[in-house]
């Protein structure tokens, strides 16, 4: 997907409201190192180094909806146990508008624990409730669903097969949504998709489509046959989309099948990628985006998620990073201070090292390029602070800047070594540095580390101050003076 297209679609889904009804799991990731084999059995011994808990299943879907700029309300069933309490706390912390958790006596809250070494999952342990929800829980669930529909733009059924979305519950929710005029998107599980008939969109993965239809799904032609077969069993369903991993996605709509090819990406962890795809699809449906475009956005989102560890979320900025550049796309890298702070925070959550440098950059020259390349070489992401026009005038005098801030920012944003640009009004970048909290501050050799604005703050956080070598013979001021002299001849 082209970056300009992605930007338009991401703008369309901002603020769309989703009602998520489904199995919320509590995901745990146990990280460690394997250095020996057990004496008791021929199995590796994981020396645990850290343990992380996060929302999985429908909870991960909620997290992704929020991270993409939408809003989400959650309805689920959990047990009266510590894990159920953790689910409630994490839903509140992830930015969900509201959450209604029906607590059922004697029921286990579903959990999934993955053990990871060297970036690879070794094995996974599931704790399944093992039974369908009670009649009383079903009634409470349907009441909560009915109450939540009024404010929703789209209803999502996230079925992880934990006994919550029984056939009767699915049919009732879809009927309620249709009466309310709300489209329903479904992530299915198990056999017999007739329980979901009447939904606007059902999104199985390739294996689920094969299991449901009993047909092979390796080639495009086989996928088309399977989708058409499934569609004949679901007369009330408008559309089907199958996610096919590295082969992309395929859409059955109005009797026609469309194929979308996935961009080639490095795959780190596929956990939760289906939730990411469904979040993007559902928000696009809520915004009235054509499904062929929604499918492309969903593939971009899922492809970005698989490059991260764990059940990860993705942000609009990350999707724009992953999209295919087009002409005139550089300006999206120019951010406000607030947006830059949230972007840097998301990079930090992904374990990335963020660098910062600043300047007027009035007339870009080889000295600037060398300095920026050096700065980018010592970090994973580089943010450039750019003096505003008024700030440049105060620092350099009347007649400066030669180029206005918007043009200077666009030039910087187009450089491969620059990830984001932020224009600041102050004479120094200290307030900006404190706002975004980078890990590395880089400046040229004409500055002393202790004199740099923000240096004390960077060091207080355990960061680095790096002095970049200067490229001799280049100076914006000298270039301006030369142009003035040449103009007088």
Q: In whole angstroms, how far apart are the ends?
A: 52 Å
Tell me, rounded to a whole number, the average pLDDT.
90
**General form:** elongated
Strand order of the largest sheet: 5-4-1-8-9-10-11-12-13
Number of strands: 19
CATH fold-level label of the largest domain: UDP-N-acetylmuramoyl-L-alanine:D-glutamate ligase
What's the gyration radius in Å? 26 Å
Point out poorly predicted stretches.
Answer: none
Question: What topology does this entry show?
Answer:
Blueprint lengths: L2 H11 L3 E6 L1 E14 L6 E14 H10 L3 E9 L2 H12 L4 E7 L6 E7 L2 E8 L7 H14 L5 E5 L8 H14 L3 E4 L13 E2 L3 H8 L6 H14 L5 E5 L5 E5 L2 E5 L12 H14 L4 H15 L10 H7 L11 E2 L1 H13 L4 E6 L6 H12 L3 E7 L1 H8 L8 H9 L6 E5 L5 H7 L3 E5 L10 H6 L3 E5 L7 H13 L1
Parallel strand pairs: 1-4, 1-8, 2-6, 4-5, 8-9, 9-10, 10-11, 14-17, 15-16, 15-18, 16-17, 18-19
Antiparallel strand pairs: 2-3, 6-7, 11-12, 12-13
Helix pairs in contact: 1-10, 2-8, 4-5, 6-7, 8-9
Features:
alpha/beta, UDP-N-acetylmuramoyl-L-alanine:D-glutamate ligase, 2 domains, 17 helices, 38% helix
Describe this structure in words.
The protein has helices spanning 3-13, 58-67, 82-93, 135-148, 167-180, 206-213, 220-233, 273-286, 291-305, 316-322, 337-349, 366-377, 389-396, 405-413, 430-436, 455-460, 476-488, and strands at residues 17-22, 24-37, 44-57, 71-79, 98-104, 111-117, 120-127, 154-158, 184-187, 201-202, 239-243, 249-253, 256-260, 334-335, 354-359, 381-387, 420-424, 440-444, 464-468. The mean pLDDT is 90. By secondary structure, the chain is of the alpha/beta class. The protein folds into 2 domains: 3-322, UDP-N-acetylmuramoyl-L-alanine:D-glutamate ligase, CATH 3.40.1190; 330-488, HUPs (Rossmann fold, 3-Layer(aba) Sandwich), CATH 3.40.50.620. Helices cover 38% and strands 25% of the residues. It contains 17 helices and 19 strands. Helix 1 runs antiparallel to helix 10 (316-322), helix 2 packs across helix 8 and helix 8 (273-286) packs antiparallel against helix 9. A 9-stranded mixed beta sheet has the order 5-4-1-8-9-10-11-12-13, with helices on both faces. A 6-stranded parallel beta sheet has the order 14-17-16-15-18-19, with helices on both faces. It has a 4-stranded mixed beta sheet with strand order 3-2-6-7. The longest helix is centred in the middle third of the chain and has 15 residues, at 291-305.
């Amino acid at each position: 997907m082209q970056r300009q297209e992605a930007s338009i679609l991401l703008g369309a889904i901002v603020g769309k409201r989703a009602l998520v009804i489904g199995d919320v799991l509590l995901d745990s990731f146990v990280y460690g190192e394997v250095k020996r084999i057990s004496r008791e059995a021929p199995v590796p011994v994981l020396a645990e180094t850290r343990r992380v808990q996060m929302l999985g299943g429908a909870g991960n879907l909620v997290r992704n909806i929020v991270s993409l700029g939408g809003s989400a309300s959650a309805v689920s069933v959990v047990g009266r146990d510590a894990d159920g309490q953790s689910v409630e706390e994490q839903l509140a912390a992830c930015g969900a508008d509201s959450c209604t958790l029906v607590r059922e006596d004697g029921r286990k809250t579903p959990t999934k624990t993955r053990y990871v070494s060297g970036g690879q999952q070794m094995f996974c342990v599931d704790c399944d409730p093992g039974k369908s929800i009670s009649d009383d829980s079903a009634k409470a669930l349907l009441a909560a669903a009915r109450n939540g529909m009024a404010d929703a733009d789209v209803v999502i059924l996230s079925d992880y097969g934990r006994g919550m979305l029984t056939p009767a519950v699915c049919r009732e929710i879809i009927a309620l949504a249709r009466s309310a005029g709300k489209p329903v998107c479904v992530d299915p599980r198990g056999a017999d998709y007739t329980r979901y008939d009447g939904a606007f969109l059902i999104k199985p993965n390739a294996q689920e489509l094969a299991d449901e239809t009993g047909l092979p799904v390796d080639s495009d032609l086989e996928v088309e046959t399977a989708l058409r077969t499934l569609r004949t069993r679901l007369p009330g369903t408008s559309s089907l989309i199958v996610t096919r991993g590295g082969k992309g996605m395929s859409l059955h709509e109005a009797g026609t099948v469309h194929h979308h090819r996935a961009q080639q990406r490095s795959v780190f962890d596929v956990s939760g990628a289906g939730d990411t795809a469904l979040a993007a699809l559902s928000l696009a449906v809520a915004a009235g985006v054509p499904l062929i475009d929604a499918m492309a956005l969903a593939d971009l989102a899922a492809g970005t998620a698989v490059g991260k560890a764990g059940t990860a979320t993705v942000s609009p900025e990350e999707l724009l990073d992953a999209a295919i550049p087009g002409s005139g796309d550089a300006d999206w890298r120019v951010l406000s201070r607030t947006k830059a702070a949230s972007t840097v925070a998301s990079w930090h959550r992904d374990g990335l090292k963020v660098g910062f440098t600043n300047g007027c950059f009035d007339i870009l020259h080889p000295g600037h390029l060398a300095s920026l390349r050096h700065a980018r070489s010592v970090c994973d992401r580089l943010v450039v602070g750019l003096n505003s026009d008024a700030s440049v005038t105060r620092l350099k005098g009347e007649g400066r800047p030669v180029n206005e801030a918007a043009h200077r920012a666009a030039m910087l944003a187009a450089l491969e070594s620059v990830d984001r640009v932020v224009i600041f009004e102050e004479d120094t970048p200290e307030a900006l540095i404190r706002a975004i909290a980078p890990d590395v501050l880089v400046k040229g050799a004409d500055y002393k580390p202790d004199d740099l604005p923000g240096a004390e703050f960077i060091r207080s956080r355990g960061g680095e101050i790096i002095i970049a070598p200067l490229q001799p013979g280049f100076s914006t001021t000298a270039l301006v003076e030369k142009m003035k002299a040449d103009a007088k001849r």
